[in-house]
Each structure stands twice: as C-alpha cells, then as structure tokens.
Amino acid sequence: MEKSYVGMANCFFCNKPSMILIDRRLRNTLPMNVGVIDMTPCSECRSYMDKGVILISIKDDTKEEDMKGPQPNPYRTGGWVVMTDEAVERLFPTEFSKAAIKMRFMFIEDSVWNHLKIPRG
User: Do the Cβ atoms of 100 and 53 come closer than 8 Å?
Assistant: First the structure.
C-alpha cells in the first residue's frame, strides 16, 4: 500500500470520495484511499437527505454485532434509493419509520427490499 501525506476518505452513505485528509505531522503515513472514517454525509448525500430518507440494501443474514457501534458496518448488496418521508411512513412500521426519518437513512434487508419491489441501480 502506497503511503502519502494526503489521503481520501469516503462517504459512509454512498461510498464515493468525500473529503481530503492531510497528515499534519508530515510522516508520510496515510494510505491513498483511507475509506470511511465517520458518518458525515458528503454534499450530494446531504442534499438527498434534505429531500427524503436514504435506503440501503443489506444481506438478509446480517448479524446484530454488524449493526452496533458508532458506525454500523453491514454487508451492502447494492440497493440504494431515496424515498420521501411520507413513503417511508406508509411502508414501514411506526418505530422504524420514525427512526429512519430522524436519522435520514435506513438499512433494509434484501428480502424486504425485494418484497417491496424497490428498484435497484
């Protein structure tokens, strides 16, 4: 892995490059692609969150420990869509819809995604 003074961190939600990191100690220690470092949305995801709730598909057999901690890390299966708050309230039980609207994103298992016929891609 090539090291550098400058690295690139990715957005937690879309996994696209979102911020530049600089090693202020100038020790040439940052990998070029650092990955996700926090749950701060990039500007594009922030604008989507202003319009609705981001839904991300995950594997059906996701373990509870994958969902715990400051930054949940379930296996994502490629489904990614933005739904209005009203659609989320209609489709999901109250406790899930309230949490999704508050957080502005929600992970959904593939079986639920497919049952709801949410498009992929």
Answer: yes
| Nearest alpha-carbon partner for 64 in 76, 56, 55, 72 | 72
| DSSP H or E run through 51 | helix 43-51
Identity of the residue numbered 45: C
Q: What is the pLDDT of residue 73?
A: 87
The 10 Å Cβ neighbour count of residue 82 is 16
Domain residue ranges in the chain: 3-36, 52-115
The pLDDT of residue 103: 95
CB atoms within 10 A of CB 121: 6
Element (H, E) at 81: strand 76-83
Return the pLDDT at 120: 81
Residue 2 has pLDDT above 70, yes or no: no
DSSP code, position 116:
T
Q: Dihedral, CA atoms, 109, 111, 114, 116, nearest 10 degrees?
A: -80
CA triple 5-15-6, angle to 5 deg: 5
pTM, two decimals, is: 0.85
